[in-house]
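FYI - complex with guanosine-5'-triphosphate, inputs then prediction.
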Amino acid sequence: MSIEFVLLGVSFGQAKLAKLRRELLTPTSKGGGGAGEGFDVTKSGDARVGLVGFPSVGKSTLLNKLTGTFSEVAAYEFTTLTCIPGVIMYKGAKIQLLDLPGIIEGAKDGKGRGRQVISTARTCNVILIVLDAIKPITHKRLIEKELEGFGIRLNKTPPNLTFRRKDKGGINFTSTVTNTHLDLETVKAICSEYRIHNADVSLRYDATADDLIDVIEGSRIYTPCIYVVNKIDQITLEELEILDKLPHYCPISAHLEWNLDGLLEKVWEYLDLVRIYTKPKGLNPDYEDPVIVSSKKKTVEDFCNRIHKDMVKQFKYALVWGSSVKHKPQRVGKEHELEDEDVVQIIKKI
Ligand SMILES: Nc1nc2c(ncn2[C@@H]2O[C@H](COP(=O)(O)OP(=O)(O)OP(=O)(O)O)[C@@H](O)[C@H]2O)c(=O)[nH]1
Ligand SMILES: [Mg+2]
């Protein structure tokens, strides 16, 4: 009995906290504060990658080395005061890299330019959390907390659970697996915190209270993240080996340009982009300038839309060469899913 009460207490607390966080993010009056507003930098290219970290970890140095763009570098903190975009051309894709001001603890609650930085991070396809190899590794968790508090979920997939509001019938809880975190009482407690008294909740895995809160609140963003540990020129080989155990990690020295190729390869992997080569009728495919689509939206229709918004209206069928098809070429419709490095020829209606 007492254990149940403790559990209930935890979930009450979590739900309350989550609600508080949301209220913090909601602007209190129109035009006031500008909460949730990022920096005014236009999205361009095929994907956007953001550099997030404490001051002086080497974000600007990294932007300069990777993109050739100039962003001021200095030994003092808060050198960068706004968002500076640069461009990386990689495997035919144009990747926008954003240098951002350093954030501090409490950034999500409005300290420094934190909110603007994190709002901009929300618009990125991949986030690079830059850490200083000579600073405590606990900094990793501090930065994660700031991003999480702003609704960004790092290297996570959306919770596989259904939450449906109803008009009546109370709270209904079903699960296809054994749950160690949630039971009917906890689910009811969380729902009541949001003044929800009628809903169906069904789980297909061992979800936590936080997972349920994420789904109830919505507006979560699921972003792949790489922990870039910079300044490895300052540590010993033994220390590097310990760092090596971190998941999603990439060691570099921006200043000495160590392992920047390794970092780009990892960024490419986490962006999970698909390159499609176009083949005009009677000509060779254009291998220099692929059309880039995301691996989540890679149908022939998505490909057409990347070229021109009206293209799909004239679409009759497509000929495809590559790993998504058996025959070379194969005739496909606009629902067909393409794979990396496929060659496509669009046949239009006459
Ligand atoms: N030893 C070493 N120093 C580095 C490296 N990268 C950057 N630095 C130094 O670290 C200091 C801070 O670098 P910046 O690139 O300005 O850092 P930042 O993260 O952009 O800092 P803010 O804009 O203040 O947030 C500078 O003195 C750099 O020369 C590296 O790989 N090794
Ligand atoms: Mg900087």
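Residues 273-348 form a domain with the Ubiquitin-like (UB roll) fold (CATH 3.10.20.30). The chain has a mean pLDDT of 89.
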